[in-house]
Structure formats: structure tokens, C-alpha cells
Amino acid sequence: MAKRSARPFSVTDLPGFATIAIMAFVALYVPILTLVAYSFNGATSVAVWGGFSLQWYVAAWDNTVVQAAAMRSLGIAACASVLATTVATMAALGTTRTAPFRGQTAIYVAINQPLMVPEIVTAVALLIFFAAIKVATGYTGLAYLVMAHTAFCIPFAYLPIRARLEGMDLSLETAAADLYASRWRTFRYVTLPLLAPGIAAGAMLAFVISLDDVVITEFVKSAGQDTLPTYMLGQMRRAITPETNAISTALLALTVLLLTAFFLLTRKRD
Amino acid sequence: MTKTAEQQQRAATTRRNWALSAPALLVLALFASGPLLIVLVYSFLRPGSYSGVEWEFSTEAWQGIFLTRDIFDGTLGWADAHLSIFWRSVKLSLTTTILTFAFGFPTAWFIATRPARARAFWLFLITIPFWTNLLIRTFAINEVIRNEGLMNTVLIKLGVIAEPIRVIYTDTAVLIGMTYVYLPLMVLPLFAAIDRFDMKLLEAGYDLYASRWQVLRRVVLPIVKPGIVAGSILVFVPSLGAYVTPRVLGGGKNMMIGNFIELQFGQGRNWPLGSALAMLLLLIVMVALLVYVRAATKGAPQGGH
């Protein structure tokens, strides 16, 4: 009997591709895992391994500057994601499931504009704009950061909401209207509950995007308004401390958590 | 002229849709699009003596991007320092795009050819770095390539090298960093394109005695071209405007356009030059996006074979 090769010829296999792919996955995860591992390092130097320890998490937790930056990050992300999701939901309702109307493409382009302009350009633009407002009004609070974040979060909130809306047909709303429900009651009791997972997904995405922002925040913030990412960037100028690794790992964990929730919310049910 | 009921209905729909979109558009106009116009205006003004601008029309900033006036005899010459930053940014961004494609295409192909369940798993593995903070990923690659980092520690322990390889704060470090942080941006659109590719076409190719290389080059690549263009744009655009990665891994000396723009608003105190640079960057990105739109619309009917 002729000896057959162990694996049948597969049309989709291309030589070397699987090897490169596995290498790419290893290359993607080794640095992240190294960062996580170093955050549990018991040694004071970043060069040697001193056993498992939570000391850097304790140090970060007790650091009042880190506490303030974390609270600021979360506060800005919460405000910006609520605002961005609210206006994005309205815009999504106005631009989906409707007969084509004048200006529809223009609205679509305008909403996605933050995705197309390099962050550094927007950052510089807001720096100039806000500098003028600061001189004119004397106000230097956090509202600048909240509004800047709201603006660039809008497309991220809009996209999942729009996707959800496009998958909903109008028959239920029509049925509600046939039963003499007012427009508001139809929206409140039919559209909104059906749309809720999309809105939650959009809000989560906006929250993550706001939480992660470095460049725009770095340019817009006034003195003493560091968020966690800009605080960490500032730390990089001096020596890298394992404390930064601990904060990074905590943020990483939060991102993975929110993303998992996002996937569960948006996955298609078979 | 009297309007028909249908026309009135249509006008009402348009009004309602615009009203619903208005709050989002207002926020974007005030805090995203509108300020870009201010930058455009500033790029045609003179720098103020301390910072800010003098309200006087001038094309000096735009000239200053490419030309510099000799401080001794006042003659104009090429601004070599600026041009080298531009050249470095373009070179690094193009190389990053090529490298991410070289690693990204096999990776996307690998994911797309797994069975459904495994595919979701591999895809999730790409999505996590995709959404992880860019700064954190830059820190992570820094942990590997810095002088006392993982790479050097392991290589010295293994006896491969005696002295650490000093790669941090070089162009190579920035290149490694950008390839690392932007790889997921290449893989995801490539995956989307390959996922739609009809694998039966491969069989047809092999039946016609094409080699694997021929099938890849003559059948697969032309059909997934929109995905390749999308991935390349998604990597090239943020690479060109990169700020965080060159700052952390390039260590101040190896600037890219983004860091150079920041410098004009910080120590450089030349807001008009910074504004002109920002507008030029925006212009390059817009051209790249137009190329993308044209390639994508041209490629669309091809995908339907």
C-alpha cells in the first residue's frame, strides 16, 4: 500500500503562512505579558526579578497623584461617553431607516471626521481654540477636556448604534403606531428597548476611547489636569518605574473587561 | 407652485433627520472640525514675540517648512533640518506599512482559514491589542527592546551577546515600535477581505496547474486588494502623524512630524510654523484617503467575481 502523507493536501494552506502567523501572535503578546509580569516584580529595580509581589500596585494605589489622575480619567470618560452616546444615538436615529434625504452623506462624513484627521492636528487645533477661550473667559476647568473627548468619541459611539438600528426593521414601530401609540411612547417602549444593546456597546466603546486618549489630552489639559495616560507619559521622561507597569496592567485589565462585555452585547445570536 | 403631499412628507423627514443630527454636528463643528479652520488661518500669520501670533498676513510659515534664511547673508536655502524630519517620517511610515503587511497578510490568511470556532478565538486575540491603549503597548515593546529589557537579558543569559544591543532611542526602535502597535490595524481589514474570498477559486487555480505562488499573486492578491489598500491606509495615516511612539522610543532626538509640530507649540514658540506643518500633514492624509476611496470603489466590482 502506498504510503500517504499524514496531512492531506489542503488548498487553503500556503507554505510558511502559519509559521509567520504564530510568530506574529507571539510577537504581539510577549511584550504585553512582559509588562504584566514586571508589574508583579518584587525587586525595586526593573532589571532583575525579585519574586511575586503586589508592592507596585500598593504604591500606585497610595500615590495621591495617581489617585487624582485616575479619578479625573474616569470622570472625563464617564461625562464624555454619556454626552457622545446621547448625541450619537439621536444622529443614528436621524440617519438610518429613512428615505435618502438631502445632506445625508454630508452628515455621515461630518460624524466620521475625527476618524480621518490625525490626532496631532486636532490636538493642535484645540490647543489654539481653547487658549483663546481661556484668555477671553478666564475659565480653565475640566470642561475643555470633556468637550474635546466628547467630540472624538462621537463616531465610536455612533457606529455600533447605527449598526444595531440597521438590523431592526420598522414593522414593530409601525405596529405601535397602528395601535395609536404616540411617537414618544413608540420610541420609549419599542425603539429604545430594542436599541439598548447598541447604545450600551457604543457607550462602552466611547468610554474606552476616552480613557485611552493621550495626544489630545496632552495638548488640551491645563496645569494639574493630568489623566492617567498623560501622567504615565510624563513618568516616561524620567526612569521607568514598575509603578507605571502596575497602572498599565490595571488599565489593560479594565479594557479587556469592557471589550468582553462589548463583544457579548454585539455578537449575533444564531 | 403647490407641493404634493409626498413632497411635504419628504421635506418633513429631511427636517426631522437634520434636527436629530444637529446636536452631534454642533459638538463636532465646535470641538473637531471648526478649530481646524483656525489652524489654517494661523498658518498664514506671523509668530508673536513670546508665543501666539501677530495678526498680520504672511506666507512665511509655509515657506519656512521648506526654506530657511541664512542668518549671516540672508539668502534662502533648503531647510535641511525640516526636510530630514519629513523624510524620516515618510520613510518610517512606509517601512512600517510594508512590515505590517509582511506579517499581517499571513496572519490574516491564517485566521480566515481556521474552522469557525477557532477563528473567533484567533480574531479575539488580534482584537485585544487593537483596542489596548497605544501608550501601554508602546511601554510594552519598550520593556522588550530597552537596554536592560527582556531581549537583551535573554540574549546575554544565553551567551549570544556580551553587551546589550542598544536599539532604544534609534530610528530602528521607532520602526519596531510602530510595526508592533499598528500590526492589528493591518490584520483586521485584511482578514475582512480574505474572509469574503471564495476559496473555491484556489482549487480552480490549482486545477489549471498554477503553482501556489501564481495562485497567490494572480488570484488572491487582486481580489483582496481593497483590504490591502484599507489596511495600508489605516497603518500609514496614524504612522505619519505618530506622536507617542516616536516620543517614547525615539527619545527626543529622532523626531517625526508629530513631535516636530508639538515642538513649535512648546519650546519652539512658532505657532504659525506649527500650524502650517499640521495643515501639510492633514493635506497628505487627505490625499492618501482620496487614493483609498478611488482604489476601494474601483476594486469593489472585482470583489464580486
Automatic annotation (TrEMBL), chain A:
It is found in: Cell inner membrane; Cell membrane. Residues 70-265 form the ABC transmembrane type-1 domain. Pfam families: BPD_transp_1. InterPro entries: Bact_Polyamine_Transport (IPR051789), MetI-like (IPR000515), MetI-like_sf (IPR035906). Required for the activity of the bacterial periplasmic transport system of putrescine and spermidine. Belongs to the binding-protein-dependent transport system permease family. CysTW subfamily. This is Spermidine/putrescine transport system permease protein PotC. It comes from Frigidibacter albus. The lineage of its organism: Bacteria, Pseudomonadati, Pseudomonadota, Alphaproteobacteria, Rhodobacterales.
From TrEMBL, chain B:
Its main location: membrane. Pfam families: BPD_transp_1. InterPro entries: MetI-like, MetI-like_sf. Gene3D superfamilies: MetI-like. Residues 86-292 form the ABC transmembrane type-1 domain. One of its GO terms (biological process) is transmembrane transport. It is a multi-pass membrane protein. One of its GO terms (cellular component) is plasma membrane. The chain crosses the membrane at residues 20-45, 92-113, 120-141, 173-194, 215-237, 273-293. Keywords: Cell membrane, Membrane, Transmembrane, Transmembrane helix, Transport. It is found in: Cell membrane. SUPFAM superfamilies: MetI-like (SSF161098). Belongs to the binding-protein-dependent transport system permease family. CysTW subfamily. This is ABC transporter permease subunit.
